[in-house]
Amino acid sequence: MKGLFITLEGGDGAGKSTQIANITKFFEERGFVVVHTREPGGTPIGEKLRDILLDRENSEMTAVTEMLIYAASRAQHVGEKIIPALERGEIVICDRFVDSSIAYQAGGRELGGMVAEVNRYATGGLTPDITFWMDIDPEAGRARASKAGELDRLEVEKLDFHYRVYEGYRKISESDPDRVKRIDATRSVEEISEEILGYIDKLLAKQNA
Ligand code: TYD
Q1: Range of the domain at 26
Q2: Biggest CA-to-CA distance, the chain
Q3: Which residue from 119, 154, 165, 172 has its CB within 8 A of the most atoms of ligand 1, so it is best to mutate?
Q4: Radius of gyration of the chain (CA)
Q5: CB 135 within 8 Å of CB 192
Q6: Model pTM greater than 0.90?
Q7: What is the best residue among 18, 123, 146, 152 to mutate for testing ligand 1's pocket, by most ligand atoms within 8 Å of CB?
Q8: What is the pLDDT of residues 110-130, one digit of tens each?
Q9: Is the CB of 9 inside a 6 Å radius of any atom of ligand 1?
Q10: What is the rounded CA–CA span in Å between residue 13 and residue 126?
Q11: Opening angle at CA 50, ends 44 and 55, nearest 5
Q12: What CATH code is carried by the domain that includes residue 56?
């Protein structure tokens, strides 16, 4: 495929949105077409599924149901939006992707290996070219997220859930360091942005080589 698929990951309050805006600007200034999207959601069907997933009234949702709805939203997103954009040679920047399900559903909800399997099916094996894991301690991240507004159904989970999510991300970044870059999210916006754009420069150079 001709385009580039970039994802951002991390716990609550890690500052993903600010960095997504910076990456978008970087590519647009260089004349690329950028598709900025998110999960759960990103398509009309996906956004409806997102409402179900994040609604705090849905406290009876089982862990397996939750995992399957995230995967359903993703399958629609990949088929309707991500693959067509990559085939057109565009830059797809996605706020969360499969790694979120590995961290939150396999890790946080302790569903284990079936999460990766279901997601391989949902995505047809599509993997990002590069992923930035915005690393921030769960407690600090939560404090930032609750300051920013009302917490959703996942965010209100107990702190030990968020530590399992964190552990999930740590394992992903250690097992796939070529793709997943750990970014220390406690630094200034400028420092973080410089590091991320440095990785992107390298990726572009490699693609053009
Ligand atoms: P979002 O608004 O993206 O959260 P944030 O602003 O923290 O990025 O909400 C998505 C929530 O859903 C977030 O708490 C993480 C969770 N999530 C999963 O549990 N599994 C997944 O596969 C995805 C994509 C998100």
Answers
A1: 4-208
A2: 52
A3: 154
A4: 16
A5: no
A6: yes
A7: 152
A8: 999 999 999 999 999 999 999
A9: no
A10: 27
A11: 135
A12: 3.40.50.300
